[in-house]
Fold this protein.
Amino acid sequence: MAAPGDDEVLVQFNIMGGDASIGARASDGSAREESNIFDVPSTDAWKDIWKSLKSNTTVLAVLDFTAQWCGPCRFIEPAVKELAGKFASVKFYKIDVDKMEDVATKWKVRAMPTFILVKGGQEVSRVVGAKKNELDRKITQALQATKN
């Protein structure tokens, strides 16, 4: 139980609606959505999220494979938050490779950070390394391809 004034993390999955959200529960019990960046807490949660992403062909998602010990991952985190603000329709999922090694292996992640852009269950692009401009460009391209 949280101490008065502390916030608790609230993770909700709405599989039927094709959405997952993460937010914070304030000490007064009210919930608020933080952003379009979602921490994936477990492999079981990932399975539910992935099922939803596969069935939704209109949502572009960025899978952010990261690790707590990864310096470049920490370096690019503010840029990822900036991109999430710029691309409000894109969902960003942070996946800790140490907690979900099986997910990282399935996606053939060999270095961190690795960003995999997916739509409708298919990989559409990949960025390996802390390359903000390349990630920005590839998200823009993927969104433009959707409009055409």
About this structure: The first helix runs from residue 43 to 55. Confidence is low (pLDDT under 50) at residues 1-33.
